[in-house]
Design brief:
Order of helices and strands: EHEEEHEHEE
Number of strands: 7
Radius of gyration: 14 Å
Helix content: 25-40%
Structural class: alpha+beta
Distance between the termini: 18 Å
Strand content: 25-35%
Shape: globular
CATH topology: Aminopeptidase
Length: 149
């Protein structure tokens, strides 16, 4: 498997982000969610297996010290192979190279597999922040990057 950087305008990134957003809407019982959109200020990494983009994740700077993980997604047929863990490590390395000392993220209470992944990779619960305040389904985590991931 290869993990590579892709621009926000990449059609495979857009397809993966759309699938991620659709799955989130289905998982939370159809509650209104964010619009399906990629952002130019998010640096995307894509996992490629057999020539096909099978997973994505992004990093957005919140400030000079903090990066936020966005749009983590693995196609269902590729889950359970450690791809998310490898992608997460690559995103942490990207954050470190960009000078961030902390990485944070938001996920939903209805995504126990995602919560388990983040906890097993050293992420600790933090108070809900930013646009997620007031969302009863949001849980947030952070990890301090002391050395390169």
């Amino acid at each position: 498997m290869l993990i590579e950087s892709r621009p926000a305008t990449d059609p495979e990134v857009a397809t993966l982000v759309e699938a991620q957003q659709r799955e989130l809407r289905d998982a939370d019982g159809g509650l209104p969610g964010q619009a399906t959109v990629t952002h130019d200020d998010i640096r995307y990494l894509v996992a490629v297996a057999g020539g096909r983009a099978v997973a994505c994740g992004g990093l957005q700077a919140l400030d000079a010290d903090t990066g936020e993980l966005k749009r983590m997604y693995v196609r269902p047929a590729y889950r359970g192979r450690g791809i998310a863990r490898q992608l997460l490590a690559a995103l942490e390395e990207l954050a470190y190279r960009q000078g961030h000392t902390t990485v944070c993220l938001e996920t939903g209470t209805y995504l126990p597999a995602a919560i388990g992944l983040y906890r097993s990779c050293g992420y600790q619960p933090i108070p809900v922040y930013g646009e997620y305040v007031g969302n009863p389904h949001s849980v947030c985590f952070a990890k301090r990057l002391l050395v390169a991931a």
